[in-house]
Amino acid sequence: MAETRTEALHGNAEGLDIQAPEAILGSLADAQVEAAKTVRNAIPSIARAAEIIAGCLSSGGKLAYAAAGSSGLMALADALELPGTFGIQRDRIAILIAGGDEAFRTLAGGPEDDTEEASTAVANAGVGAGDCLIALSASGTTPYAVRAIEDARRRGAARADAAQKILERTGHKLRPALSAIEGNKGSKA
């Protein structure tokens, strides 16, 4: 796989160890401002995704997250907040992370490319009609996240794709920030 922006050394990382703390913190703050602008521009898509997710959950469906690496950790944190914050039953939330439970200890890079593991995880979680799957990928190209979205869609689930950039590769379409593609609204109730 070709190196993506998220895998490459950041332009401001050169000499980071010899920069003044203020300069380092300024670079980090600037990156957060850039990220916030991306979110601001994606608000209509995020709102639509929220509507789709709420519809799936209110109809008795489940919400699944699929991701790898640090995106997987963000998915885990989000998913773990749902029961306490919104009262969503834990058994209606699935967390599919490349590498399985071992990823929480090692975050090895290889599992992010394991598309068969993604297919198995989607099937084992029972993601299908009436459910929604959110795939997180900083690059928009992570094979695990892309395959999870494809398989969930084939199984009739709605999908919400979280990515930082547009990917226009044949058959793989993770869109910027958070975009929602309406799926089967069938009720599981």
Write out key terms for the chains shown.
single chain; 189 residues; alpha/beta; Rossmann fold; five-stranded mixed sheet; 43% helix; 14% strand; disordered C terminus
Topology:
Layout: H1 21-41, H2 43-58, E1 63-67, H3 69-86, E2 93-97, H4 103-106, H5 115-124, E3 132-137, H6 143-154, E4 158-163, E5 177-181
Parallel strand pairs: 1-2, 1-3, 3-4
Antiparallel strand pairs: 4-5
Structure write-up:
This protein has 189 residues and is an alpha/beta fold. The protein has one domain (41-181): Rossmann fold (3-Layer(aba) Sandwich), CATH 3.40.50. Helices cover 43% and strands 14% of the residues. The chain contains six helices and five strands. Helix 5 (115-124) crosses helix 6 (143-154). The radius of gyration is 17 Å and the shape is globular. 32% of the residues are buried. Mean pLDDT is 79; it is low at 163-189.
Please count the helical segments: 6
CATH topology: Rossmann fold
What's the number of structural domains? 1
- CATH homologous superfamily caption: Glucose-6-phosphate isomerase like protein, domain 1
Specify the CATH class.
Answer: Alpha Beta
Shape: globular
Measure the end-to-end span.
Answer: 42 Å
Low-confidence stretches: 163-189
CATH architecture: 3-Layer(aba) Sandwich
Q: Would you tell me the structural class of the helices and strands? A: alpha/beta
Q: From the alpha-carbon coordinates, what is the Rg to the nearest angstrom?
A: 17 Å
Average pLDDT number:
79
Report the β-strand fraction as a percent range. 5-15%
Order of helices and strands: HHEHEHHEHEE
Strand tally is: 5
Helix content: 40-55%
Lateral strand order in the biggest sheet: 2-1-3-4-5
Largest sheet: 5 strands, mixed
